[in-house]
């Protein structure tokens, strides 16, 4: 495997290694290299596939959001940007080694770990955090074998963000509704054969505090086989609508419709339940229920328990309560915030972070663009080239260690094989194993 990209000769090259080939990494690479032939960026990822959350996080039925990958591909087509896939920090190479080779290392590693609920029973089989669950239905190789037990009648999804809505919707949609998606075949088999009848989405605060966006809320009223429901008593008085933000107003329109929906109109019911926080996951061998406490809002917008509890029988619990960055050896880490300790992206001399690794798991894909632009500006102001070995140095280590790195040209072979395998309007059938991808690259 070769990188297939030309080296231009410029006196002083600033060598940058971006770790993580997701949106934050690509926007940073784009901003670092636009109009500069004195900067070279290697985007390193432990997977053979680029684009991070676009591939493994964005819902499989939200294909239009994934179109942004074309922009990242265009960045990768530049002479001064290279994708180095299947190279894992920690396993194949250390941060110290990369810092020796490159003038700058930028951590764009996202937030791949699930936040913990902090209640009894959360480690029982049948509790699967959204990071794992979403990765599983999106064919992430680490979760190919997750095989969640979906032979259940009721599911609890905890959290009132867009990830909770994604998970509930993907569980609720029919096979027909998912034909033009890239839902993993192993997940499709299980989801579409599951006997799920009730999906509960719990928010510890109210509908006005939820971070769902209107498009995602609206979609819940359009499902073929699933009716979305909410108790009208939990919704605010329309008389107060004038004080709401645009997004809140739109969410209220969707919620008020749900309050009118007929619970018996479709096979699956999706219940949005506010003002409830999880107290314990119940079960011996595996999950059989969830204990919740009703809550009320304080003046500062936080919630407190009322002391009133209820128990709901559920066979699967999917906490969608946010993510944490995975710590990296020798990089200062803020345990409370679940991200690297940094000052506007600066971690230490010649070491920066960007995207979710910098600011925590908030914002849409597009939020990473200004983040990448400002980080590139900061780096170009603060770091000067220092005659480092850069790409040639990395190539030497790759050769010495006999590492099977994946180039962008290699990725295009994977991409082609995945799109060729698709049928019935699906955009692709993703490989869910690194070995399968390497075989495609090697022409087997
Ligand atoms: P999020 O929007 O921050 O939502 C997390 C939810 O978890 C909040 O409702 C939060 O409640 C709740 N929560 C946190 N800790 C909890 C606990 N211990 N018990 C009960 N509930 C708890 O995060 P997300 O849904 O993971 O999404 C991450 C980011 O990706 C967001 O910016 C989101 O908009 C974005 N995203 C966008 C799309 C899209 O555009 N289609 C799709 C997916 C994700 P509180 O509010 O009370 O803290």
Short description:
The protein is α/β, with parallel strands linked by helices. It has helices at about 25-35, 55, 65, 70-75, 95-100, 130-135, 160-170, 185-190, 215-220, 245-260, 355-360, 370-380, 390-400, 410-420, 435-440; strands spanning about 15-20, 40-45, 80-85, 105, 115, 155-160, 200, 225-230, 270-275, 275-280, 290-295, 305-315, 315-320, 325, 335, 340, 345-350, 350-355.
Q: Which tags fit this structure?
A:
single chain, 444 residues, alpha/beta, 5-stranded parallel sheet, 15 helices, 18 strands, 30% helix, 19% strand, disordered N terminus, binds NADP nicotinamide-adenine-dinucleotide phosphate
Spatial order of the strands forming the largest sheet? 3-2-1-4-18-17
Oligomer: single chain
Q: C-alpha Rg, in Å?
A: 23 Å
Overall pLDDT confidence: 95
What ranges have pLDDT less than 50 throughout 5 or more consecutive residues? 1-6
Approximately how much beta-strand content do the residues carry? 15-25%
Main pleated sheet: 6 strands, mixed
Which structural category fits the helices and strands?
alpha/beta
What compounds sit in this structure?
NADP nicotinamide-adenine-dinucleotide phosphate
Q: How many E-type strands? A: 18
